[in-house]
Amino acid sequence: MNIKETLRQLLTNSDIYHQEPMSKHTYIQVGGEAEIYVQPRNTEDAQKVVKFAFDKKIPLTLLGKGANVIISDHGLPGIVLNLNHFNDISVNEKQITAGSGAVIIHVSRTAYEHGLDGLAFACGIPGSVGGAVFMNAGAYGGEISNVLTKVIALNTEGELLTLTPEDFDFAYRTSAFAKKKLIVLEATFTLQKGNKADIKAKMDEFTFARESKQPLEYPSCGSVFKRPPGYFAGKLIQDSGLQGLTVGGAQVSTKHAGFMVNMNEATASDYIQLIHLVQEKVFANFGVKLEREVQILGDYEENERGKNHE
């Protein structure tokens, strides 16, 4: 079966690519090729892609802005679904509704422009609305779970669902969307009226903290590890003397130990090996198992499970 040609006949308004380099679609600029890369422009086409993959048992991978992912050097088989065209943002009184592909930073700024408080914490979080909902993204004391009130999503069979807070099952950096592999199409946030000057002051404070502490001058995949109970991952890595540790082109940031940066044409394999080394060293020094926050897509996933680091 020629997947690309079949999808061209099936879909009415989508961009379809063959052997698309994933290094073009991840923040750390690594990753092999996607067999088929599809960007639908409407809900009907998104449903058709998911149903087609389910019916034909074709591997389907959902990719947002690629902010917190590492994609295998060997690429991704089957279909990679990207919803970047689902990027509309609308405001209705205290509610903001945004498409899955909208940038969460833009949603935060829209909230500020309309004098709505509750999303200031997201003013520096890279990535899409869908990714932020999927992992319950948070920063500076705020989390998506605090403000999300409605989601329209697809299940693995392509059925359209409307979910409300009792369905979200949020926890630290996870959700029902992650556990059930739901595909977020649209999210609604309910906020509070606030003073624009106060909201702006918070956003400026968070932006300064981010720019002064995080290695934004190099490509990175954000926070690599979840916060272990009772500890801070970055502090454990720093106290293990691992800042500056390098594998190939990937390095534990000398600016913030919780980040790994692409210093010189790193590969996914470089990142995976560096993650393993850090996990092993921290466990040897402190008896703490660091659990990945960054998602690994492709054939490394099974290798990760086999190593029993988490």
In words, what does this structure look like?
- β6 and β7 form a beta hairpin.
- The C terminus is likely disordered.
- Strands 6-7-13-11-12 form a 5-stranded antiparallel beta sheet. It has a 4-stranded mixed beta sheet with strand order 1-2-5-3, covered by helices on one side.
- It starts with a helix and ends with a helix.
- The chain has 310 residues and is an alpha+beta fold.
Q: What structural keywords apply?
A:
disordered C terminus, five-stranded antiparallel β-sheet, 310 residues, 31% helix, four-stranded mixed β-sheet, 10 helices, alpha+beta
Give the topology, please.
Layout: H1 3-10, E1 14-21, E2 33-40, H2 43-55, E3 60-63, E4 69-71, E5 76-82, E6 89-92, E7 95-99, H3 104-113, E8 116-117, H4 129-134, E9 138-139, E10 142-143, E11 148-154, E12 160-163, H5 165-168, H6 176-179, E13 183-190, E14 192-193, H7 196-213, E15 220-223, H8 233-239, E16 246-247, E17 250-252, E18 259-262, H9 268-286, E19 295-297, H10 300-307
Parallel strand pairs: 2-5, 3-5, 4-19
Antiparallel strand pairs: 1-2, 6-7, 7-13, 8-14, 9-10, 11-12, 11-13, 15-18, 16-17, 17-18
